[in-house]
Amino acid sequence: MSVLKNIATLGFIGYLPVAPGTFGSFVAYVFYILLKPSLLIHIILLFIIIPIGILSSYHAEILLQQKDSRHIVIDEFCGYLLSAFLIPYHYALGAFFLFRFFDIVKPFPIKKIESLLSGGKGIMADDIVAALYTNLILQIWKLI
Question: pTM here?
Answer without folding.
Answer: 0.93
